[in-house]
Structure formats: structure tokens, C-alpha cells
Amino acid sequence: MDLDGALAEPPKNMYRDAWRLARKIIPEILTIVYTTYILSVMDTTTINIKVDRKIKREAQRIAEELGLSLSAVIKGYLRQFTRTKEFKLSLREEVPSDWLKKALKESDEDIKAGRVITFENPSDALQHADQLILTDEKKDHKD
Predict the structure, then answer these.
(1) Relative orientation angle of helices 70-84 and 53-65, to the nearest 10 degrees
(2) Beta-strand runs (E) in the chain
(3) Residue 22 lies in domain
(4) How many folded domains does the chain comprise?
(5) Number of neighbouring beta carbons within 10 Å of residue 60
(6) How far apart are CA 15 and CA 23, in angstroms?
(7) What pLDDT score does 39 carry?
(8) What is the C-alpha R_g of the chain?
(9) In this predicted structure, what is the pLDDT of residue 51?
(10) Are 38 and 10 in a shared domain?
(11) Is 86 helix (H, G, I), strand (E, B) or coil?
């Protein structure tokens, strides 16, 4: 068997096929390694809590939007709780400060008076800001 000839030219799709295989295998390997680490190295325990089904689903949705699992969120909260020894829970909605109320009122007045500019997209807003900067720079050079 001529190994030198066999290895001289790799099969045409070898790298693509190897990459596809790696993409399938790597997540499975990482899951096994992580699970082994959790079960063997970390001293973990399980907490069972009862919570309203809707609250759990909403919390999972928000955690997922943040790229986290609900378990990671709860673990993070427990770490913070043990580190700071603080439990922050509000049963009422936040009340806006006087400053915020005044700013909102002024905004409403500006909108009603037509003293606002709206943009179709972020690049239009940035272009407008650039134009304002150029205008200010020209005024500064004249003075």
C-alpha cells in the first residue's frame, strides 16, 4: 500500500466534511464535560420551589432574551444575596421622581408644539447629528 500517494492529495470535500462533523460533535462533548464537572467537582444541591406557571414562563423568556437559563439567573441572585446579605423586593411599582415628571411634561409640550424631529432609521439620526456638529463648528470659526 502506497501511503505517500494516498496522503499526497486530500479528498476534495475532506475539510468541509470534517467541519460538519466537528460542529455536530463539539456541543455534545462540551455538554458531557460540563455535566461531569458539575456532578464531580462542584458541590451542588437542588432546590425545589413552587411558582406560578405564568411567572416561570415569563422569567424563562426574559432570561432567554438575555442569553441565560433561568437556573443561571437564580444562581446569580443567590450568589448576590449571600455576598451582600441584602434582599431587595418591591411590592409596588416605582414612582417617578419630580425631575422625571417635569422632564416628561416638557417632552409632551415639545411634541405638541412641534419642536421635535423624528427619523426613519438610526443612520438618518446620525446624519442629522453630524450636520448639527458641522453647523456649530462653522459658527465657532466665525466668532
Answers:
(1) 90
(2) none
(3) 1-44
(4) 3
(5) 15
(6) 12
(7) 65
(8) 29
(9) 93
(10) yes
(11) coil
